Amino acid sequence: MLFSWEKLAGIFTFSYFRYLGWWFAITPIAISIISAFKENNYLNIQSISLPFSWEILWFSSFFYVLGYVVFLFSCPNFIKKYKNLQNYEKLMFPKDHILEEWIYFIKKFRTLEQFSSNVGIRPLLKRKMVLVPEGTRIGTGSLLQIIDEKCLKQTPILESYYEAAGIYLDSDEYRYIFCTFEVAKYREFSEETAFKKYYVYLSEVYEKINIKIKIIISILLWVSFFFFLIILAQNIYHALIYIYSDFREHFLIKRW
User: Fold this and answer.
1) Max Cα separation, the chain?
2) CB burial class (10 A; 0-12, 13-18, 19+) of residue 92?
């Protein structure tokens, strides 16, 4: 199963897993370094009796930490900063703050064609958002509202800004509006719902970034989880052995 950037942000920002992963990944390495300079080790892992393998635990932690490092360098800053809609709402930003994030994203593109053909924007324009010259009448029941892409190739984005609940893109001849379908079609709409949709749609756009790296991180996490399951199985096995031995010693032997 492929994890989304949003799900990965939740996994890697859960403090318990993060600190535990770093601790078990670094501790054996630190001990090895210490043992290279000390004749008598302060701690000898091999001498510690535990119901699981230290080596397997280290591999589980190592793959987790490796995935976390790759995540830090690859996850879009928008996802790392807000994580999800619920956390974004807890931060109590002004309701139109999400439009500033959209403006930041749009400024990466020089022309309307580059923006509208972006792998994350394209599906939005087919289902949820519109990009049309200001004043264009939105047809009833039609979500596909975009100018012919041939006309957009040489149309520069001179300036981008937002007003009310819409985002405006100025070019040489026209001012285009980029907004949700409801904002473009209806005079009365719920601003709260509209801004929530702006967040969800922008999150969808960022989910399309670095998909191959996201796959690699997901694989690393599943490998880490596999090793953790082995540790869990070892713990359960030794617990059952202990329970059986205790039961045999106190009940079966005494009975005979």
Assistant:
1) 99
2) exposed
The CA–CA distances, whole Å, from 124 to 70, 162, 182, 201 equal 28, 19, 13, 7
Q: Show the tokens assigned to 64.
A: 């987790």
| Nearest-5° Cα angle at 114, 186 to 134 | 30
Q: Tokens in use for 250?
A: 């106190």
Using an 8 Å Cβ cutoff, are 246 and 158 in contact? no
| 163/180 Cα distance (integer angstroms) | 13
- Look at residues 221, 174, 254 and name the one whose alpha carbon lies nearest to residue 70: 221
Distance CA 78, CA 134 (A): 28
* Contact in structure between 214 and 115 (CB atoms under 8 Å): no
Is the C-alpha dihedral spanning 108, 156, 172, 144 positive or negative?
Answer: negative
Report pLDDT digits (tens) over 215-229. Answer: 999 999 999 888 888
Question: Residue 249: which residues within 8 A CB-CB, separation 6 or more?
Answer: none
Q: 164 phi and psi, to 5 degrees? A: 55, -115
Q: Round to whole Å and give the CA distance between 133 and 183.
A: 14
pTM exceeds 0.85 for this model: no
